[in-house]
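Before a colleague's protein record goes any further, I have to sign it off. My question to you is simply how this chain folds and whether the tokens agree. I do not need a full report, just your reasoning and any doubts. This is what I was given:
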Amino acid sequence: MNDADSFGEQAEVHVWAVWLKASPEVNRAYRRLLWPDEVARADRFAFEHLTRSHELSHGALRLLLARFLKCKPGDIAFRFGPRGKPMLQSDSQIHFNMAHSGSLALYAITADCEIGVDVEELRDIPEIEQVASRYFSKPEAAQLLSIRSELAARDAFFRCWTRKEAYIKAVGDGLYLPLDQFQVTLESDVPARFIHIGNDSASAAEWTLQHLDPAPNYFGALAYRAAPRQIVFHEPLDPEQLLNGI
């Protein structure tokens, strides 16, 4: 079976959410899924909870990809681009990306299309004006600062941030643009989309941007260079459920 067949006749993006908290026993099982270099990276964290989160998030990636590749999680080999974007070492049509924030990891898997995903736990941004002015395009920053409600402004900030980060992760080692050199929508009542990329609206039209609500108090986004695809969202799992094949 071609590994792209796992996505059915209609182009799909499978999105998985996994909580990054588990019992010591489950954490050890995830650690055993990793290659030595991944274990070494996990052990370089100064705090144990970060080491455990790294083990869970990267072990979950192996478990999810193994479902599509029809192989054992430990058999999967990765390579990394100059900017660190992970990809499968094998000649596969499957593309993926992962992100995590707070206690949640988010994964996007599709075929024949570079993809980026981002997730952020909603939280207060004390210097929201300064951050927006530094990283957002001028129209985005102006629009954000025109919102009077602090809660609505916070949500608009994270819609904008996750969409921009998803695009940067999608292009990975390709054409790189600073965050303020492209514009996305950020309003709650307007569908996610690119307005321009590098002041080029035609380039923006080649990309799809999709908003995600992966779990309460989290926003996410997908970006990929293709026509809109059906999103198959899998409700958040705890690591033990994923390990047991649920």
Observations:
- The longest helix spans residues 48-69.
- The helical segments are 24-31, 36-43, 48-69, 128-135, 138-145, 150-171, 201-205, 239-243.
- The chain is about 35% helix and 25% strand.
- The chain has a mean pLDDT of 93.
